[in-house]
Amino acid sequence: MFSLNDIQTLKFLLIGIPGLQKSHNWHMHIWISLPLCLMYVVSILGNCTILFIIKTEPSLHEPMYLFLSMLALTDLGLSLCTLPTVLGIFWVGARDISHDACFTQLFFIHCLSFLESSVLLSMAFDCFVAICRPLHYASILTHTVIVRIGLASLGLPFLIKRLPFCHPNILSHSYCLHQDMMRLACASTRVNSLYGLIIVILILGLDALTILFSYILILKTVLGISSRAERLKALNTCLSHICTVLLFYIPFIGATMIHRFGKHLSPIVHMLMANIYLLLPPLLNPIVYIMRMFQGRKSRA
């Protein structure tokens, strides 16, 4: 058992893909690393492009695009905090990660994930105000309101760090996750599990339901518009955000449900859902919004 006195010297071992950690499967890692590397390049370049466009285009300095820049920063952070361990495993076989590095990565992954949920909620509020309260748009969405962020996830790394570890220090993913590290603790993890469940319920119960309620009100307002062209124009303003919400919440719900109720499933299923949850939104969100920007410019032209 590792006590709190010597836990600083503890290292964790990242598996990556179950069954491919043996030396004779090394050639498979090379082939898997190529699409992974391409995904990271597209994700980082796409989010940096969005930030550059918003910064250099004065006409985009409005609440909707300020929220979009927050989303791009969050996605960029998620990509950068998982990139070192993921590519380290598949490029050079670097599976070891120190105790402090693992908790630092865990902190940023969970903090940025919950922050993204808060940004998506704020963007839903932006769509609601723009469509349902257009005359009060500027007065409601001030810069003070735009700075709203969710920091409930800050407790997760500190709760898990206080635990002693006595099981084999092997993590089943390419990065450090709270639920994965909880399995290695030899003390009671009831507080950690309860806290994680409360956070998930808050995200799904408050953020997701509030977003859904916002779109019910938006749809009610849009259906009251007499002109068909105006109805389509109003709905089109929300299309990109709807795609982004689905890209975040569907993998999030899937990964959560598999972790809670799919313990009998193959480790590969758990690995795939965790990777989809963390890699897919930062990859596709920039594509959705860059296409939206070009369509907006084309329509104005």
Automatic annotation (TrEMBL):
Q: Where are the transmembrane segments?
A: 30-54, 66-94, 106-128, 140-160, 194-218, 239-262, 268-291
A single BP term in Gene Ontology? cellular response to lipid
Which Gene3D superfamilies has this protein been placed in?
Answer: Rhodopsin 7-helix transmembrane proteins
Q: Give yes or no: UniProt keyword Oxidoreductase.
A: no
- GO molecular-function annotation terms? G protein-coupled receptor activity; olfactory receptor activity
Which cellular compartments is it found in? Membrane
Q: Which PROSITE patterns does the annotation name?
A: G_PROTEIN_RECEP_F1_2
| Classification via SUPFAM superfamilies | Family A G protein-coupled receptor-like
* Its membrane topology: Multi-pass membrane protein
Question: Where does the G-protein coupled receptors family 1 profile domain start and stop, copy by copy?
Answer: 46-289
Read off the Pfam families from this record.
7tm_4 (PF13853)
The UniProt keyword set, sorted, is: G-protein coupled receptor, Membrane, Olfaction, Receptor, Sensory transduction, Transducer, Transmembrane, Transmembrane helix
Query: What is the protein name given in its UniProt record?
Result: Olfactory receptor family 51 subfamily G member 2
